[in-house]
Every structure is written in C-alpha cells, then in structure tokens.
Design goal:
disordered N terminus, 46 strands, 3 helices, four-stranded antiparallel beta sheet, six-stranded antiparallel beta sheet, globular, disordered C terminus, single chain, Immunoglobulin-like
Length: 777
C-alpha cells in the first residue's frame, strides 16, 4: 500500500491529535527540532558566513550558531567541560527564528566578523523549541591567510617591475616563477584557441624538457604565414631574449579538409617535440563525385600524387616524409578510393600504426567494397623508418588503444581481431591473450599488459604468454593506471578504488554517500583523467565523493563538485584532497584535471596525448578550479592552481602548499594547457595581459621557475580598459574555399577561411565583497 508523504502524514496526525486531546498533546507528539546540513561560505581572513538547515518538527523553533577557536574548544574538553562552553553566538542578541513547519528549512545566514586570521574555528548549529534543544554536530573552518612565495630573494629581481609586483600582494607566484608570454603579440587579429576549439580539435603539447610548446590557431599569422588549413600549427621556443614562434603549416589546396573539417591537420607530436605527424587531408578534394582536385604531394616527401597520406615532420630541419610512398606500398586502389587512418604510435613517433582496408604489403587481405575496399575490414600496418609491415593476420583488426598499445621500441603491438585480444612481437606470429578481452594499458616496453574480461582484471606476461586473474571476485569497472614496471595497478569497483601489488589488494578510497570514489572519466588509462607515477606509488584522480570529509556540495547547484585527490602508497596509504577549499567553505565550482585532449570527433578522433598534470617525481600537481581557493582568486571563473609537496620549491608546509598560477583576475578565467616533466614550466591559456608587451587576446603563458625577461623602463602591465584593443580581422572576398569565416593573410597559396571568433565561456557567480578583501600577512 502506498504511504502518504511525510508532511501530509504529519498534517493528518496533528489535526487528529488536536481535535482529540488538544494543543498540549500536539506539542508532546512533535518532538525536539532537528538540525540538518551546516556549512560556511564567504570565509575571509577575519569574517565568515554561517549557513544551516533546521526541521522545527511542527513547533515554533529558534536557532543559534555557536563558534569558538579550536584551541579553546580543546582546552574545554581537556578540563572536562563541554567543548562549546563560552562560545560566541550568532546572532549575538535574540536567537533567530526557524518557523514552526514540518521538514527542513534553510535558516537566515549569519555573518560574523573580527575573527583571527589564519585560525581554526569549531562551530555548530543549535535549534530550540518547547520540546527541547538539539545541538548539531561540530564542524570546522579556517580563516584565510595570504602566503607570499613570490620573487623576494629570487635571482631575477627585475621581474618586480613587471609581472611579479608585490604591491598589494597581487600576481605573487611561488617558487620564483615569473610570467612569460609564449604566443606572439601579433596574431593577425586572432587568438590561441583552447583544447578541442578548432573544429572539435587542437594540438597543444609541451616538450618534456620545457622551453618548447606547440599549439593551434584558427588564424594564420607571422612573417611567413603559409596557408589556410582549418587551423594553423605553431611551435614556440624559448631563447635568452624571449619566445620565438615558428609556423609549421604547409600550403594546401583549398578544400583539402572538406566543408566540415574534423579536427586540425597535425595529429600528434613526439615527447620532445622533435617530430610531428600531419594528415594531408581528405582522399578527395572538391565537390562532386569525380574528385576534380588531387592534392599534390609535398616536394621531396615521397608521397604518391593525390592519395590521402600522413607526413612526418622533422622539426629540426623542417623536412617532411610521407608515411605511404610508392616505394614502400603496393597501391592497388585509385586515389579517390583510398583512405588511411592514424591508429597509434610510440611516444617518440618512430613507430606509427595506421589502419586501412587496402592492401599495402604482401600477406594483407583486401576485402572488396562498394568503393574500392570494405572500410569495416581494415588492416593494421606499422611504419618504422620508411618501412611498412603488416600487423594482423586477417582483416577486421584494430589497435587495442591509441595510447600504450605500441611499445617504445615498436617490437610489441597489442591489437584486437575477430573478437580476441592479441600481441604481435617482432615479425613473429601473433599471440592470443583472451577472447573478449578489453585492453587497459601496458608497460612502456610492452612486456606486461592489463586487460579485463567480464569484470575480471588480468595481468599478462609477454615473456611466458600467460595471464593471471588479479580480481577473482570480479566487479572491476575500469583501470586507472599502472606503474611502468607493471608491479602496481589501480582499478575501480563499486566498492571503491584498489591497488593490486604482488597479489595483495589494498583499498585506496571507498565510495561515500552513494557517490563513486572514481569517476568514469578517470579511466581507461589511455584517455582518462587519472595519472599514476612511474613507480606506481602515487595515484592522482578525481572524485565527487567526500573522501576526506570535506563538504563538496556546490553552493549554487546543491550537487557535489568534483575534487582532485592524491593517494600516496609510500606515505602510509594516505588520500589527500588537493583542491578542497583550505577554509572548509563549500565550493563554488568543480576542480578538474584533463584527460587525453581530443583532436577531432567521431571514430577517427585522435585521443592520445595527456597533458602533464603530475610531475615526474609526483611532488607537483596542476589543475583547474572554478572555486576560489586562495584570497587572490577574485574573478569568479576557472583558474590554474599548483599543489606541491613539502620541500619542493619554496614550500615548507607539512601538508603541502596550494598556489594560484594564473592571475585570478581575468573575467574570462584561465585553463591549464601542459607542463614540463619536472613542472618548472607551467603553460596556461588566458585572455589577461600579464606582461606589458601583451596587447590583448587569448594567449599561452608560461609560469616559469626562474623565468622572466628584462622589461624596458617604464613598462606597465596592460590591465582592463587600458589594454590596447585588438586590430579588426582582415576582410577579404571569398577565394573558393568551402569553410566559412574570415580570411587569413594573403599568401601565395589558396587559403581556407576559418572562424576567427573565439568562443568563450563565462562563469559568473555572485560573491560578497568580503571574500576578496585583502587579508593580514
């Protein structure tokens, strides 16, 4: 039988008791009021706002917040007194009124001031009615403090003239970092787009050693602007005098990427940015069925005329080498019928895997189709130093994953075929791992791999060609990552996150309040947001579960926000929330770390490169947060943060240090792009002008340790309305391209116009001014 709602049941009961026994009986049946959720907002260095919920249980109810320093609270307990004895009250005069209804109501928030800065306070909400007083559970918050770890004592003191000025403690950067503008000031009226902002794609990737980064732009700029693909590609390098930008774009025939391009021409770069992989376009250019325009090959590349192909660019000398050439491939299909797709690669791009239904080498099978061959029955080919070799046995094969399935030396390749997972070693016959096996990840040398079958996680040894079930009870939802030697692997189940090592299962984090400890976006390792250190001691992941007790309920939505967590197996198995607000105030937005950055959409999208959010030694973590985690973050938008462990850089705090990397003042916010392996270079995208030479627009900046360049005397930072406005985009008549948008600069080759408008997402949240008052030093 259906039961009436709780409130309706109370109404019926109250009416019955009142009629039968009178008002006194009603009061006796109601019970004492109940205290629900309690939280703080707008925590500053000297003030706070208390919030809470009370259920009056049908009787007139009043409430008060009690607050006391943690030192006084502990002293009370030590002396045998109630912890809140002598606590201050809010409101200080008459208690607040919570009404006399049924069900929880939000009480009037109470703001208190004159608090001690950088101090821990305990507080609770107490509700009182004729049926008694109910004290709520104790909670805590910490008033803000400003910790300046900027350029005082740093070698490049000239930076104080420009981008690390300590006046008002603004733009203070940790670890002797300084802002450097990476993208050039003059961008032909354009800007640098963020991840997946150019036709669903973009390639933004930093060199592991620092000092170099590549990026895309919808605009073509520079003294030798060369062409007009959907997006031009650039690489910036740091010199003693500043950053210089090189245009990597090649001239192409208009329409080479169709009227609805999928991503940008460049697909991926090696870890040191020494090599880049570029798609030359569609297999057919122009409209109609006869393919009127064949894309000419780049001179000296060896590419066959008109065929869809990929080029490897040597970024040292600027030369291009075609992957498929007349010398290494048997081309039986016409150019109009030939399609080639990137499947995966080794990190140095010396070993590439491609997919096509065409026969390119002896031993491959070409299944006929309506136009050439059947695209649903592809073959896999490995390209190594100009040679192509067949990977699969029968058509219908696919690389197991775009990342991690090809070993560093190319000798081992994991792939799927006929519903089974396989390993090909060298030129030998493939070894079957499992039917229905779903590849998760492999060690860099490919000697060990992890895969799942029906909720079971298996470890595979290439040496013995044997598999071990690591989870006999099953229930595995996904793998977050593994150490480089395969000795440690992290995985998620409905019961939480676990570490498997030497046959021992260790709990990492258990879900709470029906929230998953790991989000589905954290896995699989190829594309997920989770990161594992090389030795496997550290796991970085996202979760909406309150794993450390922090109340991550969003102040606006009432739903839990994602937070960034770090697990340290070598430090006693401790889980630390890196993005939880240090004041214990509820967040005003989520904190995130990027997974693999996609270039393009659909099945042909390239999802390989994962930006370095975790430094090689695990001592630094970079993330974006829409919450304001430090007093200097005052823009109500997403910003870039750094967490670093004690002893790293200038951090001396036992629990690590949290610092703002972006300015915290740009209304458009900022977003993390990438970092060097040791975290000394942190690249981010912002519309703010952080150096005097920046006239505006969206640019890539480097917050570099020991960085910065001398500034001309009298140079000032461009701020707000004082910034020089961008020049208007160049207006040119259409030149036959099929992509709409403003034209690029005039060049000697046909151009494809691309949208010049930068899409920006604004996040506006109301926040009281007291949150942004400058605290005590």
């Amino acid at each position: 039988m259906l039961r009436p709602p709780r409130g309706l049941r109370w109404v019926v009961l109250c009416a019955f008791l009142t009629a039968l026994l009178g008002p006194a009986a009603l009061a006796q049946a109601a019970g004492a009021p109940q205290v629900g959720a309690v939280w703080v907002t707008e925590v500053s260095s000297a003030s706070v706002r208390f919030n809470g919920e009370v259920d009056p249980e049908g009787l007139p109810t009043t409430y008060r917040f009690e607050y006391i320093t943690d030192a006084a609270y502990k002293e009370n307990l030590a002396r045998g007194r109630e912890g809140f004895a002598g606590a201050a009250l809010a409101p200080a005069g008459l208690p607040g009124k919570a009404g006399s209804g049924l069900g929880y109501v939000t009480v009037e928030p109470q703001e208190v001031t004159a608090l001690l800065f950088a101090s821990l306070y305990d507080y609770r909400l107490t509700a009182t009615s004729a049926d008694g007083t109910t004290p709520g559970l104790p909670h805590a918050f910490i008033t803000q403090q400003i910790v300046v770890r900027g350029p005082e004592g740093c070698p490049n003191n000239f930076l104080r003239e420009e981008n690390n000025s300590q006046e008002n403690n603004e733009l203070a950067l940790p670890d002797c970092r300084a802002y450097e503008m990476v993208s050039p000031p003059e961008k032909n009226g354009g800007a640098i787009q963020g991840p997946e902002r150019n036709h669903g794609g973009d390639v933004l990737q930093a060199a592991a050693a620092g000092g170099e980064i590549t990026y895309s732009s919808a605009s073509s700029f520079g003294e030798e602007a060369k062409g007009a693909p959907p997006a031009s590609q650039y690489i910036s390098r740091r010199t003693q005098g500043g950053w210089t930008a090189e245009d990597l774009t090649v001239p192409i025939v208009s329409g080479s990427y169709g009227n609805e391009p999928n991503g940008v021409p460049y697909q991926l770069f090696s870890a040191d940015l020494a090599r880049g992989l570029m798609l030359n376009g569609l297999h057919c250019r122009g409209e109609g069925t006869d393919c009127p325009v064949l894309n000419p090959p780049l001179p000296g590349s060896g590419a066959p005329n008109g065929y869809q192909d990929y080029y490897l660019r040597d970024n040292e000398d600027g030369s291009y080498t075609a992957v498929v050439t007349e010398a290494n491939a048997e081309l039986h299909l016409e150019a109009t019928e030939f399609n080639l797709a990137f499947a995966g690669a080794s990190p140095d791009l010396h070993h590439l895997v491609f997919s096509t239904c065409a026969t390119l080498t002896p031993g491959a099978t070409e299944v006929p189709g309506s136009e050439g061959c059947d695209p649903t029955k592809p073959n896999l080919y490995e390209y190594t130093e100009g040679r192509l070799s067949l990977i699969n046995v029968a058509p219908g094969a696919a690389l197991a994953a775009q990342g991690g399935a090809v070993s560093a030396d190319g000798s081992r390749v994991y792939f799927t075929e006929a519903g089974k997972l396989w390993l090909r070693e060298g030129s030998g016959s493939p070894h079957e791992l499992a039917a229905g096996g779903e590849f998760q990840t492999a060690t860099p040398d490919g000697a060990s791999a992890f895969y799942t079958v029906a909720g079971h996680l298996y470890s595979y040894s290439a040496a013995s060609h044997s598999s071990t079930d690591l989870t006999p009870s099953g229930g595995v939802e996904g793998v977050l990552g593994a150490s480089e030697d395969g000795s440690r692997v992290y995985y998620a189940t409905p019961s939480g996150i676990f570490l498997s090592q030497a046959g021992v299962r260790t709990p990492v984090a258990a879900p709470a309040a029906a929230q998953p400890a790991a989000q589905p976006s954290d896995y699989p390792p190829t594309t997920g947001t989770a990161r594992v250190s090389a030795g496997g001691e550290t796991l970085l992941f996202l979760s909406k579960a309150p794993l450390t007790g922090y109340d991550n309920t969003d102040q606006s939505t009432g739903q839990p926000d994602s937070e960034v967590f770090l697990y340290d197996a070598s430090g006693g198995g401790r889980v630390t929330c890196l993005s939880c607000n240090p004041t214990d105030e509820r967040p005003i937005g989520p904190s995130t770390i990027p997974g693999a950055v996609s270039n393009g959409t659909g099945p042909d999208a390239v999802d390989v490169y994962k930006p370095r959010v975790l430094s090689a030694d695990s001592h630094r973590v970079f993330f974006d947060s829409s919450d304001a985690l430090v007093p200097l973050d005052a823009n109500h938008a997403s910003d870039v943060y750094q967490w670093e462990a004690q002893g790293e850089g200038t951090c001396q705090r036992p629990d690590g240090c949290l610092d703002l990397i972006s300015s915290g003042k740009d209304p458009e916010g900022a977003s993390f792009v990438d970092a060097s392996a040791d975290g000394s270079d942190v690249y981010f995208l912002t519309s703010a002008s952080l150096v005097s030479s920046d006239p505006g627009s969206a640019d890539i900046y480097d917050a570099r340790i020991g960085g910065g360049f001398p500034v001309a005397k009298g140079g000032e930072i461009c701020v707000g309305e004082s910034c020089i406005p961008l020049p208007p985009p160049v207006e040119e008549p259409p030149v036959g391209t099929m992509i709409p948008g403003p034209a690029n600069p005039p060049v000697s080759f046909p151009k494809i116009k691309t949208p010049g408008k930068q899409h920006r997402h604004h996040r506006r949240r109301h926040k009281r001014a007291t949150r942004h008052r400058r605290g005590h030093r």
